[in-house]
Amino acid sequence: MIRSFAALAWNGFREARRNRVTLVVAAFAVALLVSGMLLTSSAVAALERVLADVGLGSMSLSLSLLAVFLSSGLLSREIERRTIFLVVSKPVSRGRFLLARQAGNMITLTALLAAMSLLFWGQHVLYGYSATQPMVASVGGLWFELFLLSSLGLCLSSFAGQLTSGVVAIAVYLAGHLSADLYRLAAHAGSPGVQWLGKAAYYLLPNLEKVNFRGQATYNIPVEASAFWGGAAYALGYSAVLLGLGVIIFNRRDFK
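Now predict its structure.
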């Protein structure tokens, strides 16, 4: 069982590595990181903050979009290429297949995140700065955010096409970072229906700000261990629910 799971995960990683979009997004992130150097001439007084803000922001945006792309179209591509029939015809459960694909996506995203983080910290060393605790916490929080987004994309792709899954996942990503603002706006609305809708959206949608520590990294504000691990537990728990729903739906799906 472990051998088949590892084989499926590694195959998913190889497919993602061959995908040109992975290279394009990685190049995009590198370009944004380099742009931080170009901004130093106009922001010398706040050089460290500019480097942290631009670097972490570019990593978050590019990798989040890549996580959505890789996961939202994964199952639909397998169905279109008819390779899913080869898998389900073998003694491999659909649940194991989906979880292995999640593992393959995370191997790809983790490798890219590690490479971008090394470049990011190398940029800081070049200008005489060092990696701070909030920066490390921000990169760690981003990993958990990517895990949640990948789980969301896989759950959506278990019953919807690539375009629909991608659009919904991006909408949830944006709403997840604005959920607290949406809650406050809804609370000040005059309509009880709008207030109820805002509260429902706040509790149902993933609150991605729980694992977002980029603001602390920019201003070098220490991240408490309870806040970091609380956000990590929240992201993993939400991801487990999404993957569980994805497995249930995927098991009941008819490919004929």
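The mean pLDDT is 80.
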